[in-house]
Fold:
Amino acid sequence: MPAAKAQQMPVVCQPHSKIATHLEKQFREVVVVTGLAGEALFELFASESGTWTVVITRPSMNNLACVQGTGTALTFTGIEYPEPEKKGDPA
Structure:
């Protein structure tokens, strides 16, 4: 989808359970990543076929969940986190 077209996509907001159920039934997407952005919950739903949906849930909006973006061709890189630096080791 071209960037201009993606920017025109309306934001869809529903109760979290309704969005999660729809994504699982319609696209076989489940939550694969979560995080916090301030008080907002960030979730990345994804399917084995590579479709993905970003959902943000905000307590300030009575926990209403809003779809922020969707796409295809999601792949996991397999890149591992680097080892933490040991304090006191000479460089």
Q: What stands out?
A: DSSP finds two helices and five strands in the chain.
